[in-house]
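agent> fetching stored inputs for the zinc ion docking request
agent> found them:
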Amino acid sequence: MRRSTRRRRTVSAYREGDRTVVLIPARMSEAEEQRWVRVMLDKLAAQESKRVLGDAELAERAERLSGQYFDGRARPASVRWVTNQNTRWGSCTPSEGSIRLSHRLQGMPEYVVDYVLLHELAHLLVPGHGPRFWRLLEAYPRTERARGYLEGVVAADRLPRVPGARSE
Ligand SMILES: [Zn+2]
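agent> prediction call returned; pasting tokens
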């Protein structure tokens, strides 16, 4: 935390290596300061969770999820974002071990992206959506919540944008 005599009203925060710097006006009280530090930390965390993962990070994430939920048995050869996939959130070609996620997932909550990744990883182990498939996904505690979120997004897309006019 840095107090600045030049700063009169504004508070700002940024990361500097592994530290977080919060700039606070010099005259702020201790209590106000505490409150602002919390607010700014939440704000930074929210910004960072919206940050888009690169393909390399996506592959790392897939490996971690596979280890955590499938004992590392699902081993994709490639995991990447694609922009040509508008009707499906993710897809998987088991013969190639490739997983593709729709760019439309970017900016959605982490647990939703993780669910879609895990879903495609599960297809490397079990094709189709039979009971064996869903039993695998039961290990992930947010399966239902993530499916609900995605259903909500689809439903919202179908809502007419102009009252009285249908977009379809
Ligand atoms: Zn599927």
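agent> quick read of the result: The two ends are 52 Å apart (CA to CA).
agent> awaiting further instructions
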